[in-house]
Write a structure and sequence with these properties.
This protein has 185 residues and is an alpha+beta fold. Helices cover 56% and strands 19% of the residues. It contains 5 helices and 5 strands; from the N terminus they run H-H-H-E-H-E-E-H-E-E.
């Protein structure tokens, strides 16, 4: 994807989804300000408001990632901080061209988000290394397994498609002892 295409997409997201989320947040603020709203309803609305704010921050991070081409490690670290600051990350000498870096900046957070939200893992790690003329990304966790392509869910299938579309491969080994995902570019 060219820089100009990425900027155009960022503008569309900013002027569309991002603005809609801000407007939704303001509407929730107005409901919260209404006198006589029962406390239990007010608490539920606050929870929803915090969720909308969190989603808006993630959308903003995506807009910045599309508009800018900062150094890969800094971009990846910033993207992962939105999910959880507790990932074990090791990046050893791997270098990526712009196409590979952009794909990985979309795929890695998605796969780590899945592990964080669905696996029940206490340890999740990301290792990126250079092996001969290939870059290898390994994501592992000690969760309950079950990572697989599921109809109606697009996280894993989208990751597979993205990696295969740039000539890479991805393998997923997921069982009751955890999940091991290996991406080779």
């Amino acid at each position: 994807m060219t820089i100009s295409t990425r900027v155009e997409i960022a503008l569309e997201i900013h002027d569309g989804i991002a603005q809609d989320l801000v407007a939704l947040g303001y509407q929730l603020d107005l409901v919260l300000a209404q006198p006589g709203t029962p406390p239990d309803i007010r608490n539920e609305i606050r929870t929803i408001r915090f969720s909308v704010t969190s989603i808006a921050e993630k959308v903003r991070a995506e807009i910045f990632a599309l508009r800018d081409t900062p150094e890969f490690t800094a971009s990846l670290t910033a993207a992962l901080e939105v999910i959880s600051p507790d990932f074990i990350i090791s990046i050893a000498g791997a270098e990526f061209n712009e196409i590979h870096a952009n794909a990985l900046l979309r795929v890695i957070p998605e796969l780590l988000r899945n592990a964080h939200n669905h696996s029940g893992a206490s340890d999740i790690s990301l290792t990126i290394t250079q092996v001969q003329d290939h870059s290898v990304v390994v994501i592992s966790d000690n969760g309950t397994g079950g990572a697989q392509v599921t109809p109606g869910r697009y996280g894993i299938s989208g990751a597979i498609e993205r990696i295969e579309n740039i000539g890479g491969s991805i393998s997923i080994d997921s069982n009751s002892l955890g999940t091991l995902i290996t991406i080779t570019l």
